[in-house]
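Design a sequence for this backbone.
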């Protein structure tokens, strides 16, 4: 069985309690359950992770790159949180590890503060899902499955 990594960046552990008017009331555990159910429909498993630390996210991307080369993983659905707008290092990790990434954002970052309009991840992403709430994770999974088929 092949795997998809669902990787979440800083503050996503607060999903359901942080700014529910922007991010909704679902928790990260709810998102994980929905991702597991969606993946199972396709005969896949999920490696679901969250970290508030940039280096841990980079290590996870490197690990995904190795698993992809071994044929054990399809790619990564990635919500980098605020690191989207600041991290050249995450961009470089994705490119260097040759990881197919679907970038996901719960809110419509383009309808928010101007500093959220730029993404260092988008130029190296295989696809982007923005503003669809937590349903965007399922769209990201479906997109990654489609792109890697």
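Sequence:
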């Amino acid at each position: 069985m092949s795997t998809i990594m669902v990787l979440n960046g800083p503050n996503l552990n607060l999903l359901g309690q942080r700014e529910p008017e922007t991010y909704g009331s679902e928790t990260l555990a709810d998102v994980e359950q929905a991702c597991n159910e969606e993946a199972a429909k396709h005969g896949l498993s999920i490696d679901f992770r969250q970290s508030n630390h940039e280096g841990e996210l980079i290590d996870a991307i490197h690990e995904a790159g190795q698993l992809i080369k071994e044929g054990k993983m399809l790619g990564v659905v990635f919500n980098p949180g605020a690191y989207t707008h600041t991290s050249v290092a995450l961009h470089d990790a994705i490119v260097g590890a040759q990881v197919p990434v679907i970038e996901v954002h719960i809110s419509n970052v383009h309808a928010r503060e101007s500093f959220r309009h730029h993404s260092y991840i988008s130029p190296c992403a295989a696809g982007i899902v923005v503003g669809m709430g937590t349903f965007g994770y399922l769209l990201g999974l479906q997109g990654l499955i489609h792109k890697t088929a």
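The chain has a mean pLDDT of 95.
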